[in-house]
Design a protein that fits this description.
9 helices, Rossmann fold, 7 strands
Amino acid sequence: MRILVTGANGTVGSAIANELGDREEYEFTWLDVEEHPEHETVVADVTDYDDIRPHFEDQDAVIHLAAVVDVASDWDEVLNVNFVGTYNVLEAAADAGVEDFLFASSIHTVGLFENDLAPELYDPEFERPVVHHTDPVRPDSFYGLSKVFGEGLGRLFIEGSVNPMSEAHPAFTTPTREYPERFYSLRITSVRDAEHDHPYGLSEEGVEAGYWERGDEDYELIADRLKCTWLSHRDLTQLVDLCLQDESVDFDIFWAVSDNDGRWMDLEHGRATLGFRPQDNGAEWDAPPE
């Protein structure tokens, strides 16, 4: 299976490369705006359709990761990469006849839910409701909004059909695409780099950056949140692998989160549809690794 990965040099792309890159059934093409120090990279910019289009030929699947990922980013920062870039990648996949499309969506598509209940939401004793993939989107930022856009665009490409009213009036014309045949939106929660792939990872990064010290109130708060939202590398790549092997889905949305006791994201849909059974649980950690 030939797979093109956009934004391949980021944290998620690196995890996929480390966990799945040597699998015999997969042949990856890594695409990013810069060379990667450890593997061959196609250098191209998703904001330029003509630049990326040739690299979609003969691919069986696309994993679209390229994005501005800072939640604090303003409109202008996310517009070209997250909105235009996502359209370009989907259009290129459709034009090249790519069958499978995996889209890196985000917890921030429903981020206002978390904002309403934090920080009590991170307390192990808190009686939290469960957020399902069918619940209304509530983006908390322009970044979250861009992920809502990507999900909606994927649905349009997959489910768009000829409107019978289009012959009567052009206003009823609906864009239609034959490809991709399958679109998987993975609502990724919290993934850290390989060194910090644990529920204390973000807190430890803050120590290294000089933001706080171990045991500080902010250190513990960030750790409490990550125990709820952590997505380990092995659980992430299990879900990616299942999507690549699946042939049952047309369009669907799945929560990409480890089986944390404190999670508020539904895992039953992923289990029932894909067989996704994450192995890790943030609640099992009470300190960073030695």
